[in-house]
Queue: 2 jobs
Job 1
Amino acid sequence: MQKPLPELFLDVIERHFHMEVMGSNWQDDLRRELNNSNFPNRAEQFQKQFAEAILYQTITPEQYSELTEQEFETPEDLEAELRELWHAFYGDKPVAVKVD
């Protein structure tokens, strides 16, 4: 049985990666939310959870579709999309569970 996905990861995916809300300034909106001083370490937690989703395929295409209304036929297709989103948000930073 697959362990439940972290609440922070699910919340961010649903609120920021949903096809109806992902606008041209999604990166700025997400940075503001993750760097909120009321929630220290949130940015690092999300980065680790996002990397785990990519590296270990912790989210299925079905789960992702439920949150974002975007369809992916295979886990590999979803992984490719998540890698593109990682690159758009983190630039050339390697996908890694250890947060610098």
Note: The mean pLDDT is 92.
Job 2
Amino acid sequence: MREHHLNDFKKIKYICEIYKERRFYYRQEYLVGSDRWGEPKQISEETFLKRKRDGFPVEYRHIDKLPPYILSQLQGLDSLIDLALDTKDEEWFRELVDRRNMIF
């Protein structure tokens, strides 16, 4: 399969990050003026598969750590757990720890 003709003008790649439970899809563009890759922008699975069929370069990344959305949830819960400890609210503390254990 030949590379898509738009890559003659813009250097673009499509990324699939594979976690244990979920996949995330991104589009990343090379910034010629800065001579570096730009920030990945999230796209749908359908867009990723269409661009792959169209001949754009794709990259698969297998990742062993937790997905970003879970890490952000854990960080938020950890902050609340600290607050519950500071306020000495044992019931709220136990509820938050139980919720954290369900995620983790």
Note: The first strand starts at residue 12 and ends at 18.
